[in-house]
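Hello forum,

I keep getting stuck at the same step: I have a sequence, I want structure tokens, and every attempt I make locally crashes halfway through. Rather than fight my setup again tonight, could one of you with a working pipeline run this one for me? It's a single chain of 353 residues.
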Amino acid sequence: MAIAFLIFLAALLLLVISHEAGHFFAARAFGIKVEEFGFGIPPRIFGLWRDKRGTLFSLNLLPFGGFVKIFGEEGKEVSNPQSFGSKPAWARASVLISGVLANVFLAYILFVFVSGLGVMEAVSEDGAALYPDAKITILEVAPNSPAESAGIQIGDKVGGFKKIEGLQKFLKENAGKSVVLNISRGGKELFIEASPRKTPPEGEGALGVALGWTRIKKAPWMLAPLEGAKLTGRAVWGTISGFYWLAKDFLAQRPPEVEVAGPVGIFNITASAIGAGWGFLLTLLGLLSINLAIINIIPFPGLDGGRLFFVLLEVVRGKRISPKTSALAHSLGLMILIALMLAVTYRDIAKIF
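Reply #2:
Ran it on my machine without issues. Output:
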């Protein structure tokens, strides 16, 4: 668990710091002063060093992210050529969108490695006969299910069955009893004991898992950049579609079909991905990076998309929004976002207990 937590923290830092690095290098490119590049979230522990351009690189108390403090970000100091507010709208928009692009680029790099190392690909049960390495795979583990209690993880391969229907029949026939499953995980063979339920919740099944046939698809390293681009495109489209259905369900006031996870939920998913191997973990990081990019581009105050919307509004109006109004709107937006994150985190913890 300790190793899983450290990997989770490292992954979170990688995602956030890459996003902030996008803003940092874009601001530098346009001659905008960056006052501070923080590793972690304040309060500040101490300053690591200050470079020749006056940027303080700091280490902060909460190791869950990072930030970049840009001079004149709220539109102040417009007379100072090093101020964010002094730059034309297109330059400010470029700085704002650079964090999103940095996350997409990080996802692309990760997916290039995944393509070369081997990416899990879903195949039909009929098509599985064409691939010697195709296995029945655990695609999802329900919270508080027999599978979770037994330590079964996402990505585990179940041996000894030629069809999913055969495995499901075996579990149903042995409901209420103890069974031993032959599991392959990360190249190791395990024998895991579990107790299928007689009366499982609707849609979960006796063991509480979703099953599917998968194989490992590897691309030659020369073609990995192309395959990585394809995976990035699919991830972007899939994430946008997920947010669309989430918004649609919210407006229709019905339970969401798309699952939402906060930091606690993401930690649990990361812990499962670690056991499934590097390919699975890198795929997860790539998907999280895309999610961070899409969330940040949403035109909501406090997010990069909200600030970008203000810049576009300025272009349409032909008049700048006052720094006071901008600061107030983004502060309120940030408070709402923090409240939403706390609500999702509470739900994630409630699921565990």
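The beta strands are 34-50, 56-70, 119-123, 135-141, 157-158, 179-185, 188-194, 209-217. If your local run keeps crashing, start a new thread with the error log.
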